[in-house]
Every structure is written in structure tokens, then in C-alpha cells.
Design a protein that fits this description.
Oligomer: single chain
Radius of gyration: 21 Å
Number of helices: 12
CATH architecture: 3-Layer(aba) Sandwich
Strand content: 5-15%
CATH class: Alpha Beta
Helix content: 25-40%
Number of strands: 9
Distance between the termini: 37 Å
Bound molecules: nicotinamide-adenine-dinucleotide
CATH topology: Rossmann fold
CATH superfamily: NAD(P)-binding Rossmann-like Domain
Structural class: alpha/beta
């Protein structure tokens, strides 16, 4: 990379390319303006630009992925980078992302966007999933998904075993200590992981919480046990407070934290039970209070992304994710697939100096579904002329 080149995500996509993005054939002469060797949109047909993102839903065969073009248009990790533009430049920043165990979830997508912007990536992986994740990583199973917009592979500097429901070794009950899925791993409570990161790297700049767990998620709230409810809150809400509490002392001022929430916190989503809706409501409320506390004391920003439905491993365990994806396609203002990368790019923005005045916010990345008060696919609207995006 040239010394003066700006890496990572470059906010420089032309209006034409974004708005007419679904049909690449219409775009062949539009320039993205990468310095002297200007690329046309047609260049983005190249599989290397479109291969790494898996569609969450294969309902239509769009000729090219919308977000890949935009990302490529934003990317400038080569010598043809323009001097103008608005870069998401996270070079020299270090991120710890808690909650990655495969390449399907939001944590992975966030890691990729942060890496594309130049950040160093550390990962915290749930202990029971650690072995399979590390083995898959080592064997190259994720290599295709590791490809960044500039063609390089995302590097993970270190993977830490983590169980975010335990703050310190004294909290760990005997049955977990002796569980064979925990054998072979050590120092995985939150305090110990923060301490290990401090010893290995000194400081971090970005903390991402991309984890949730609700053992009774398939039970309606009114049938949820106290134990199940508290477990959901512990794993999905308090875990963020705990991570923030223990990582704050090693976070550089000006840093940012991001968690992932879901609209079920504020609107009724039947099927998202077991206290998970309550856990997300707590997470969003805590985002505000923690933004105040971390902002005043440490100059750290605290935001949460309310993401639309994605067919991740965790979401599939709930059982109705395909229904939610289809519902969104039918009812959201933007009738298009939602890509994990779109959440990743928002996280990169929120972590960057471009978002230096944003804290305590819940940012929706859901094709606008949160703004709807009715489901327009209801038979009740049968007689109404509802505009449809037939191109997606
Ligand atoms: N998938 C969706 O539709 C959707 C929508 C909105 C918000 N979210 C949120 O996004 C975040 C990431 O979830 P995802 O859907 O990408 O699924 P995912 O399966 O990729 O991520 C969940 C991760 O949490 C980890 N985890 C569970 N318990 C843990 C613990 N005690 N300690 C450490 N790690 C633990 C799992 O191993 C997994 O890696 C979650 O907060 C989820 O609620 C997901």
C-alpha cells in the first residue's frame, strides 16, 4: 500500500451506483473514480469482489450483490485511492469482538468491516465453540469468507476463549469447571480475558458485544421460568456491562463500544421468548446509561445496532428465522435482502471518528422495518395499492 493511501472503507460511492445498484448491466459506464485507473461498475462483476458474502436468503437471483458494490466503491486499499472522500480509517486501532464462533453471524461481519477499515482484530469465542472455530479457521474453512474488499484475507491476531456469563473464576460452578467442553481452555472468565488482552496487547480501542443466549427462548414469556429469564439477562445483557466494566480500564479515550439488539425489545415479536425480549430492552436501556458513565469518565462512546433478521447459527436455534426474513422482505420499506455486511459497515462507521458525536444510540439496520406500524402483506390491505419493489 502506498504511504499516503487511505485503506479500508471509503465513503465515496457515486449516487448513480448506489441507487441503481440492483442491475449491474445498467451501470457499465459509471465511474467509481479510483484515481487515475478509474474503475467502472462493470469491473465489480469480478467474483473476487462478490464472493465472500453469503446471502442470508436465496429467494431471488440478483446478478450481483448490492452491498459488495457499495463496499468496493467505499474501499481504497490500493494505490489508486483518491485523496478526497470520507474514509472510515481505523488504522492503528485494535478491536475486541466477543461472540464469533463461525462466519455466519453479525460478529464475523463486523470483524470483517473493522478489518477492512484497517483495525487489528481480536476475537472472544464461547468456550464450548472454541475448538471447532479454531480448527475451522486453521484448516482454511473460512478462507473464502475472510476475503476483504482489497482481496487480502482478514487476519485475526488472537482468539481468546470466553464465557461472558462468568466474571471471575470464583463465579464458575463445579459442573462447568468439570464439563469436558471446557477442558483444555483456561482464563476464560471476563476479568481473565481482559487481563490477558492487556498482557498481550496493552490496550484496545473498540469493543464489540455480539452475543446472546436464552435457554428458554422458544417459550412464551408468560411460561418462562425465573431461572431461564435470569439466564437470558445474564448472557445477553449483563454480559455487556461486565465486558465494558472490565475492558474500560484498557480502552483508549475516544474508543467505542457496540452491541447488537433486536426490535423485539420494543415491539411484540411472537416467538422471541424466554426473556430475550426483556434482555434486549435492558441492553438498549443500559446503552444509554453506560454511554453517560463511560463518556464522562473515559471518553468512550456506547451504541447498539438494532439489526434485522439474519440466518445466523443463534437465530436458527430459535426456529422461526426464515419466517422473519420473509416477513421483512414483504413488509419493510426496502424490499431487499439484508446482508450481515450492512450491519458490519454500520459498526465500522460507529466505531470510527466519523461517529464522534454519536453515543447512547440505538441505530436500526433493518431495511427500515422498525418504522412500520402494520404488516402490509396482511389480507386487510388487499384492496390497497401498495407500492412494491419488483426488481429485488
Ligand atoms: N440473527 C438475527 O436475526 C439477529 C437480529 C438482531 C440482533 N441479533 C443479535 O446479534 C448478536 C449476534 O448474534 P448472531 O445472530 O449473529 O448469532 P451468532 O450465533 O453468530 O452469535 C452469537 C454468539 O454468541 C456466542 N455466545 C453465546 N453464549 C455465550 C457466552 N456465554 N459467552 C460468550 N459467547 C457466547 C455464541 O457462541 C455465538 O458465537 C446477538 O446479540 C443477537 O441477539 C441477531
Amino acid at each position: 500500500m502506498a504511504a499516503n493511501a487511505t485503506p479500508g472503507l471509503q465513503i465515496r460511492a457515486t449516487k448513480q451506483c448506489i441507487s441503481a445498484s440492483h442491475d449491474i448491466s445498467k451501470l457499465s459506464n459509471i465511474s467509481f473514480g479510483f484515481g487515475s485507473k478509474r474503475k467502472s461498475c462493470k469491473d465489480f462483476r469480478s467474483p473476487s469482489y462478490i464472493s465472500h458474502t453469503k446471502p442470508i436468503h436465496s429467494f431471488k437471483s440478483a446478478p450481483i450483490k448490492f452491498e459488495r458494490m457499495v463496499t468496493k466503491a467505499m474501499s481504497g486499499a490500493n494505490e489508486q485511492v483518491p485523496v478526497s472522500g470520507l474514509p472510515i480509517d481505523l488504522r492503528g486501532k485494535r478491536a475486541f469482538i466477543a461472540g464469533i464462533a463461525d462466519d455466519n453471524g453479525y460478529g464475523w461481519a463486523i470483524a470483517k468491516s473493522l478489518a477492512a477499515a484497517g483495525a487489528e482484530i481480536l476475537v472472544g469465542t464461547w468456550v464450548p465453540a472454541l475448538n471447532i472455530f479454531e480448527t475451522s479457521l486453521r484448516r482454511g474453512k473460512f478462507d473464502e469468507s475472510r476475503v476483504l474488499p482489497d482481496g487480502s484475507l482478514m487476519e485475526i491476531a488472537k482468539v481468546y476463549p470466553l464465557d461472558a456469563v462468568f466474571d471471575c473464576p470464583e463465579d464458575v460452578p463445579e459442573d462447568v469447571k468439570t464439563n469436558k467442553r471446557y477442558a483444555g481452555s483456561s482464563k476464560w472468565t471476563v476479568t481473565e480475558v481482559a487481563e490477558s488482552v492487556k498482557q498481550d496487547f496493552g490496550t484496545i480501542d473498540i469493543l464489540v458485544h455480539s452475543l446472546a443466549n436464552g435457554p428458554e427462548v422458544i417459550k412464551p414469556l408468560s411460561e418462562t421460568s425465573r431461572k431461564g429469564y435470569l439466564a437470558a439477562i445474564s448472557a445477553s445483557s449483563y454480559s455487556f456491562i461486565s465486558l465494558l466494566k472490565h475492558f474500560l480500564p484498557i480502552m483508549n479515550p475516544g474508543g467505542a463500544t457496540i452491541s447488537l439488539t433486536y426490535i423485539a425489545s420494543e415491539r411484540i415479536i411472537p416467538g422471541y421468548g424466554g426473556g430475550m425480549s426483556s434482555a434486549k430492552a435492558a441492553l438498549e436501556s443500559d446503552t444509554k446509561v453506560l454511554a453517560f458513565e463511560a463518556g464522562r469518565k473515559h471518553k468512550i462512546r456506547v451504541n447498539t445496532i438494532s439489526a434485522g433478521p439474519l440466518g445466523s447459527r443463534a437465530a436458527k436455534a430459535i426456529g422461526f428465522i426464515d419466517m422473519m426474513i420473509n416477513y421483512s422482505l414483504e413488509n419493510a420499506p426496502l424490499q431487499k435482502e439484508l446482508y450481515a455486511e450492512e450491519v458490519g459497515n454500520t459498526a465500522a462507521f460507529l466505531a470510527s471518528p466519523l461517529a464522534s458525536a454519536i453515543t447512547g444510540a440505538t441505530v436500526y439496520v433493518d431495511n427500515g422495518l422498525n418504522a412500520m406500524a402494520v404488516g402490509v402483506d396482511s389480507p386487510a390491505f388487499a384492496g390497497l395499492d401498495i407500492p412494491k419493489d419488483n426488481k429485488s
